[in-house]
Write a structure and sequence with these properties.
Rossmann fold, alpha/beta, 1215 residues, hydrolase, seven-stranded parallel beta sheet, seven-stranded mixed beta sheet, 47 strands, globular, single chain, 19% strand
């Protein structure tokens, strides 16, 4: 028997007093080794079946039905394996059948991944979680575990957590086994200890738990963060039974004088004999002060190289590195010199992989390196042919290339071994790393996938046979917020799974003291749009006449066109010196020409959207003028930072109107997701799972086209899936769904004309499989026009596009190949065209006939509602609220407004030029986009009926329904093949039908093929997802709520920054404090948090935002800090126990409060801002001077009369 476990179990039982409980208690232990359970049996607590065989359960044989009777009949204090709880939860959705209390005890020595004695072979585990095939049966492993990691020779598994109320309809208490408050981590500096690296911490814990760690003192090298301190405390609890003590010794910066010049020879070799490393300002201790120090590029380069070399040694601590510095500070040299060092001075020539979002920048940097004589740099992206790609990949594998630029999409879609073979990675560089932040203006969803993917490569769990690969990551970005509520650096570390110690984090100086602000507050009687047009036109004319090189930033491209048209009409001579730049509707060649014209000073003024940003390095820009702010303060600072790179002085100029932030609000609102869309994604995933009957799914973005705009459906779906995945991980502490981006195309569908079918198949038949197609078909017309018969020109084939590209079109770039295929130009058969198609499947389960009656009711309600609107409004504008109110009078049950919005927009024109654009015959409503109001996520659009087509809608929908009746043998599925729509072309009536049926829950549909590549989704806990889809489950995505709150705060900060008068130094003070996370100072300067209530001004400074967490987490976090006051202890216990009762109420924030400028003497621990409620934690004898704040309800923790019900009743319920 393991005495350490016996003693720690005794400690646990004494601490929790479970043995003295007055009720039956069933304890499920989670994540422990076998000898732990043997020690439990010796305490007298028996397994709840009273029949344990002394072995760890074999998950291949576990059946929930075997445990049902023992669960109901269990008495006293008994225990079980967590695997047994999972098996029970899979057959029993309500655990109240057990009359006593159920507790889950977590092995908190490990963090969500446990080295449990799983009887399944490791190769079976790896196959289960790395397998992305969608037709194999689900593995038995996936019933119990959701993911795995490998640490050396240790396999760690993450459970499918099933003890939440959503799983078992019961509040199950969760306890940590080891008490982190017993033994603290002590600080070690010069003591004689055994050093442990952070990377070997899991292995150390494993040996400690197994009783195989040598006794003695151990020193862990790392930053003394709260998380690491807690880990060491837990290790010390177990270590105390083995005479083992763990301490922490913070890493120190290397001695700079020894490293500054050591790699200068490489710089001089390739950059010229006169080249020298530049000095840049960095903050010495950004956590606590604004002090700076000049640091040479050489010091940072030496640090990066040292981390690369240390990572090659398995027993040496190494760190990831973060560098923030403005464009023009020479960030590329930070990885280019280390890459040169690794290739030229290390015998195995480790690879440097540079992930960059900009294709043009990759090419430019590689060409620049080659011009310097560095021939071993290359890039791989969609601009090179397949043949050239394979040549470069062979060069990488053979050692010809060692500096490789890749797009994130390519890395994500590839097995790492297909890219690099047996080569080792020496350094992974993430350029423009701020794109990871999900709430940022320039967020790229593929960057969000990078963290998990790179971790799988480092841990040896990528889709390859490659073993663990240790290498540091270098994250480079321009100025990014460090700390505070808008912390980008912390987001980076979390999303990319970085281990970056403070000594290897270089936070660049934010201030640009040579940029002068000229912000003019404008009061106008004119319409804002007209005033902005005139002000901007006048400013542009002034800068051209004075030959001042200027970038003018606009929120919308339409504003650029308005200003350019106005200048061209009124001042044609000025217009010749003005150019423009934006991303959409502007060809890349035109953008390049515009960029070159401005860079070479042929044009004096550049009119641009935010697209004129990353990779732009023009040093002689004098002015940055804002038509209106395009985003948050961080975006504004990035944009004005493009002035005066090499000039003595630059200017940041704005003519600011009070309504200017509405543009940024509208941009955020248009690009953002909604909670109902994420809930709809859950519903759709469940439908596909029910249809496919397995957990591995390949979903086409077009399947979700009823939720999102067609043009953005791919990015919106990826964003929605990642928001969902991350939020569920935060809530349930395991991957409820796993999402992986797949960016290459494989299976597509085509129609081959009969006349050329034999000829086509002779050449391409090995890639093709004929599909069953039920055409010819009758096409019903809309309104009074006659019906017609549609007959396809040939048979439908499934074709493997990837194989064709590799074998038959290898000289084409992937971008060219894709364009030619979807535009009918890939295969040349003269007048006979090979037409790409999409496969649409509508699933009418539980039956077409049962659905028909309900569908007719839907048609009638739609028709009657449009009749009502025509009668009440004629051709005048109406709102979504008008439509929703009228529809719900006609249809029962009531439909949520967000779904009715999706319904209404099915009948809207895509453009406002109603009569000039081709449009589907059922579209008769013109939509005019509104602007954001106070709530940035509500953009009120206006609608109006423009044609008489509305009068035919019911009859034609019923015709379409009949047309789309099941045509497969099972009598449930309707399958058709539709031409892949081009932008601006009509969609089919089948797509309309599929969307309406899905919106009303009458049927489901799925697309295969099309322009958007599929996305891999594995549902690790289908039952949890199924319960979350129900109308009774009020799911709100915590990540999305946080994004919404950040955007609201961004508007307040930016508006205050613009409307208040500050000196130049004061503005840079505000900016600097914002970027260093000093929110209290920023809020105080900008007065963003002051609210008036009953003539008392209250300033709330939020410290930690809890919105998005469940209330159990909130109370757990707060009550851990409560005083020893008896009433607070009693209250805290009750708060945690009744936490679920709060979940429909407003979420609190925590922070400091001042009233009329005077700070309170004690901390306000919880603030419900909307409800005007505060909770104060204080000692009994401490008086609160503002206990009765006018307009606010204040609760005092030590108040003996305070109850949970009083708090509940004071907080607003959120509808």
């Amino acid at each position: 028997m393991n005495t350490a476990f016996s003693n720690s179990i005794d400690q646990f039982l004494e601490r929790t007093d479970i043995l003295n409980a007055d009720e039956d208690v069933l304890i499920f232990f989670k994540g422990f080794p076998l000898d732990f359970y043997e020690s439990i049996e010796h305490t007298g607590i028996k397994h709840f079946t009273n029949n344990w065989d002394g072995q760890y359960p074999d998950i291949r044989k576990i059946k929930g039905t075997d445990y049902l009777s023992p669960l109901i009949s269990a008495h006293g204090q008994v225990w079980g394996f967590y695997e047994e709880l999972i098996a029970l939860a899979d057959i029993l959705s309500d655990f109240s059948a057990f009359p006593g209390k159920i507790v889950v005890v977590d092995n908190n020595l490990f963090h969500y991944y446990y080295p449990i004695p799983c009887l399944s072979p490791q190769k079976d585990v790896e196959e289960c979680f790395n397998n992305e095939t969608i037709k194999q049966p689900d593995s038995y492993i996936s019933q119990f575990y959701s993911d795995y990691k490998v640490d050396g020779d240790i396999l760690l598994l993450s459970y499918v957590n099933k003890h939440y109320e959503v799983d078992v309809n019961l509040r199950i208490e969760e306890l940590d086994f080891y008490d982190t408050h017993i033994i603290d981590a002590y600080n070690v500096r010069n003591e004689c200890c055994i050093d442990i690296t952070i990377s070997s911490l899991v292995h150390t814990k494993y040996l400690l738990q197994d009783g195989r760690l040598e006794e003695g003192k151990y020193r862990i090298l790392g930053d003394a963060t709260t998380d690491l301190n807690n880990e060491i405390c837990v290790m010390n609890v177990l270590g105390s039974f083995y005479n083992i003590v763990f301490g922490i010794s913070e890493t120190e910066m290397q001695k700079r004088e020894e490293t500054e010049e050591c790699h200068l020879d490489l710089l001089k070799k390739y950059w010229g004999k006169d080249a020298e490393f530049r000095n840049n300002k960095f903050y010495t201790h950004p956590d606590v002060s604004n002090e700076t120090v000049d640091i040479s590029q050489g010091i940072i380069i030496a640090d990066i190289i040292k981390q690369c070399l240390d990572a090659k040694k398995n027993d040496t601590q190494y760190s990831d590195i973060i560098v923030t510095a403005p464009t023009g500070a020479g960030k590329s040299v930070f990885f280019q010199i280390p890459a040169i060092y690794l290739h030229e001075r290390e015998t195995d020539k480790p690879l440097t992989i540079v992930l960059s979002p900009l294709i043009a920048l990759m090419k430019d940097q590689v060409l620049e390196l080659q011009e310097r004589g560095i021939e071993y740099a290359t890039y791989i992206n969609s601009t090179i042919s397949y043949k050239e790609r394979m040549r470069r990949l062979d060069g990488i594998k053979d050692g010809e290339y060692s500096i490789v630029y890749l797009s994130p999409e390519l890395l994500l879609s590839s097995d790492i071994s297909t890219l690099i073979g047996e080569r080792k990675i020496g350094l992974m560089v993430i350029d423009e790393a701020h794109l990871v932040t999900s709430w940022g203006r320039d967020f790229r969803v593929d960057y969000w996938f990078l963290g998990d993917h790179i971790e799988r490569i480092r841990r040896g769990t990528s889709r390859s046979s490659q073993q663990t690969s240790t290498f540091p990551m270098l994250c480079l970005t321009a100025t990014a917020v460090y700390g505070g509520r808008d912390d980008v650096i912390n987001d980076l570390q979390g999303s990319l799974h970085l281990t970056c110690y403070s000594g290897h984090m270089y936070i660049g100086y934010v201030r640009r003291d040579n940029i002068i602000f000229d912000i003019r507050q404008v009061n106008t009687k004119n319409k804002d749009k007209e005033e902005k047009l005139q002000l901007t036109t006048a400013a542009v004319c002034k800068y051209v006449k004075k030959h001042q090189k200027t970038i003018v930033y606009f929120p919308y491209k339409s504003q650029i066109e308005d200003v350019l048209t106005n200048i061209t009409d009124k001042y044609p001579d000025i217009a010749t010196k003005v150019t423009r730049y934006y991303s959409s509707d502007m060809e890349s060649a035109e953008r390049d020409k515009s960029y070159d014209s401005f860079k070479d000073s042929d044009a004096t003024v550049m009119l641009a959207t935010k697209a004129f940003g990353m990779g732009i390095n023009i040093s002689d820009v004098e002015n940055i003028y804002h038509y209106a702010p395009t985003g948050a303060l961080a975006d504004y600072v990035q944009e004005i930072g493009r002035a005066a790179r090499k000039l003595k002085v630059g200017y940041a100029i704005t003519d600011y109107l009070g309504s200017d932030m509405n543009y940024a609000r509208t941009l955020w609102g248009l690009s953002g997701l909604r909670h109902y869309q994420i809930k709809a994604i859950i519903n759709k995933l469940c439908s596909i799972y029910e249809e496919k009957k397995h957990r591995n799914l390949l979903v086409s973005p077009d399947t979700f086209s009823y939720l999102f705009d067609t043009e953005s459906v791919d990015l919106k779906l990826k964003s929605g899936l990642m928001l969902l995945s991350t939020d569920l991980l935060n809530k349930y502490h395991f991957k409820v769904i796993t999402v992986r981006s797949k960016n290459l195309f494989s299976k597509q569908y085509i129609i081959v004309p009969n006349e050329i079918e034999e000829q086509f198949l002779e050449r391409y038949g090995r890639y093709c499989e004929m599909m069953q197609d039920c055409m010819p078909d009758q096409q019903y017309s809309y309104g009074k026009a006659g019906d017609c018969i549609i007959t396809k020109t040939g048979n439908v084939f499934e074709i493997d596009l990837g194989e064709i590209w590799e074998n038959d079109f290898s000289n084409e770039t992937f971008a060219q190949f894709k364009y030619n295929f979807f535009n009918g130009k890939l295969f040349d058969y003269g007048k006979h065209k090979i037409v790409p198609n999409m496969k649409l499947t509508i699933n009418y389960n539980p039956g077409y006939d049962k659905i028909e009656l309900r569908f007719k009711e839907v048609c009638r309600a739609i028709q009657d509602t449009f009749n009502d609107i025509k009668r009440l409004f004629g051709g005048r504008r109406f709102t979504m609220k008008d439509f929703s109110s009228l529809f719900n009078k006609r249809f029962d049950p009531k439909i949520k407004q967000e779904y009715l919005k999706l319904l209404l927009e099915l009948f809207c024109f895509d453009h406002v030029e109603t009569y000039n654009n081709p449009s589907e015959p059922w579209k008769f409503i013109e939509k005019k986009r509104g602007e954001a109001g106070k709530n940035i996520n509500i953009i009120e659009s206006m609608y109006s009926i423009k044609t008489q087509r509305y009068s035919y809608i019911s009859n034609n929908l019923k015709k379409y329904f009949w047309q789309a009746k099941p045509n497969m043998k099972d009598g449930i599925h309707y399958v058709t093949y539709l031409t892949v729509p081009k932008p601006g072309t009509q969609v089919s009536y089948q797509q309309l039908m599929a969307s309406i049926l899905q919106l009303f829950g009458l049927a489901t549909y799925e697309y295969e093929g099309g322009k958007n590549p599929q996305i891999f989704v594995r549902i690790n806990d289908p039952r949890k997802l199924m319960k979350m889809r129900s109308d009774n489950y009020n799911y709100k995505n915590g990540i999305l709520s946080d994004i919404e709150n950040r955007h609201k705060r961004a508007v307040r900060i930016m508006n205050s920054f613009m409307i208040n008068k500050y000196s130049n130094d004061e503005r840079w003070d505000i900016i600097e404090n914002y970027f260093l996370g000093h929110d209290t100072i920023v809020d105080s300067k900008l007065e963003t948090n002051k609210v008036k209530r009953n003539d008392v001004e209250i300033d709330i400074t939020n410290g930690v935002e809890y919105d998005g967490s469940d209330y159990h987490t909130i109370w757990d976090s707060i009550v851990a800090s409560f005083t020893s006051n008896d009433n607070e202890i009693k209250l805290s216990t009750e708060l945690v126990k009744r936490s679920d009762e709060f979940n429909n109420h407003e979420r609190p924030v925590s922070g400091d409060v001042s009233i009329d400028g005077q700070s309170l003497d004690c901390n306000c621990d919880l603030i419900w801002v909307k409800s005007r409620v505060m909770y104060f934690m204080a000692d009994e004898d401490k008086e609160i001077p503002y206990y009765n704040i006018p307009g606010w309800t204040c609760f005092f923790g030590a108040d003996p009369n305070l109850t949970v019900d009083r708090i509940l009743n004071a907080i607003e319920v959120i509808e």
